[in-house]
Amino acid sequence: MNSSYSVPREVGRFQQQVLLVGVVLLAILAIGAFFDPTQFFRSYLFAYLFWIGISLGSLSLLMLQHLTGGAWGLVIRRILEAGTRTIPLMLLLFVPIVIGATRIYPWTHHEEMSKTPALEEKARIYLNLPFFTIRAAIYF
User: Fold this and answer.
1) What confidence tens digit (pLDDT) does each residue in 52-92 have?
2) Over the stretch 81-129, which tens digit does the pLDDT of each residue have?
């Protein structure tokens, strides 16, 4: 490996531009969360499931490639490994889902679940926020 490699100047300029776009979009996100929190948390859940699907899909393909030991995955192995490195970030990004669970899931509302006796029994045993959080922590 050549130790005299230096990053092109265009990369630094591109990083600054992308950081600016990220800050602007984060501000728009905060404004949306302020004006309509229910829609914000529903949209956040949808986006979260998309990105964790990519992370877990990379993990499953990587495990399959290691299991089979074939040469078919050598080309994409580093890309899949990079995709799996986002899983700890997804754990951190799960916190807003727990915070906004009462706006996302109808089973967090006791009056909604008490309308049907079967649902009330499920809410007592399985469909409650503390058990949901414990299950999510175990899954991670």
Assistant:
1) 999 999 999 999 999 998 888 889 999 999 999 999 999 99
2) 999 999 999 999 999 999 999 999 888 888 888 888 888 888 888 888 8
Amino acid of residue 87: I
Q: Are 44 and 100 in contact (CB under 8 A)?
A: yes
Computed from CA positions of residues 125, 131, 132, 134, in that sequence, does the dihedral angle turn out positive or negative? Answer: negative
Helices assigned H by DSSP within 1-140? 9-35, 37-68, 77-84, 87-93, 95-99, 101-104, 110-113, 117-125, 129-139
Token pair 């409650």 is at which residue? Answer: 128
Q: Among 37, 51, 53, which Cα is nearest to 101's?
A: 37
